[in-house]
């Protein structure tokens, strides 16, 4: 696994966010993703505020949209409260892994922020990603490098410099590893009205414990 290969990534965090270390470790082991990813996304999304709600309705520590939370909750047999720290982190970790399988290092963070549909549109048409998304990706990358200028704040409260991150590798080593069984799930994308869905990719979570196949409907922030 990536976090078992000696990768050293410093992720500055607020004192509030650090209280979730054990939950992050559990989610990383269960979803087989590096805990540093989860920690950096959590800090950038919510700055450790488990009751955080975005202007567009994203909820909790990992800022999951309601439709995404609903399907991940059913998939992972989670509780009913989207703000529960354990369940929100676990769902967010599962979603990060899905998106990384789909988009790889270059795109999974942008897809997490803007939504898979919006990122697919960017790839297909060249329509620029929102400035919010570019800032978000740079904020997470900065935390993974350990040089976040305002590590105690979420990106919603921080103005980050734009960088051409698309052409650069997110990590200093290749992301593929033969010991990783990457999950596949039927990910569905809602359009702006919420009336249509589009399949992004299909498959199953054969390599993960206590996970059954289910569509994930995504109506992300942008």
Q: How is this structure best described in words?
A:
This protein has 222 residues and is mainly alpha-helical. The protein has a single domain, classed as Orthogonal Bundle (Lysozyme). Helix content is 42%, strand content 5%. It contains 7 helices and 3 strands. It has helices at residues 15-18, 21-31, 35-46, 66-76, 85-114, 116-125, 131-145, and strands spanning 187-190, 197-199, 216-218. A 3-stranded mixed β-sheet has the order 2-1-3. Helix 3 (35-46) packs across helix 5 and helix 3 packs across helix 7 (131-145). The model is unreliable at 1-12 and 149-217 (pLDDT under 50).
Query: What does the average pLDDT come to?
Result: 71
Number of strands: 3
What is the molecular shape?
globular
Task: Provide the β-strand percentage band.
Answer: under 5%
Radius of gyration: 16 Å
Question: How far do the termini sit from each other?
Answer: 31 Å
Strand arrangement, largest sheet?
A: 2-1-3
Largest sheet: 3 strands, mixed
The helicity comes to 40-55%
Domain count: the total is 1
Uncertain residue ranges: 1-12, 149-217
CATH topology: Lysozyme
What is the CATH architecture annotation? Orthogonal Bundle
Q: Can you count the helices?
A: 7
Order of helices and strands: HHHHHHHEEE
Class in CATH?
A: Mainly Alpha
The class by helix and strand makeup works out as mainly alpha
Family: Belongs to the virb1 family. Belongs to the transglycosylase Slt family.
Protein name: Lytic transglycosylase
Domain Transglycosylase SLT: 23-123
InterPro entries: Lysozyme-like_dom_sf (IPR023346), Transglycosylase_SLT_dom_1 (IPR008258)
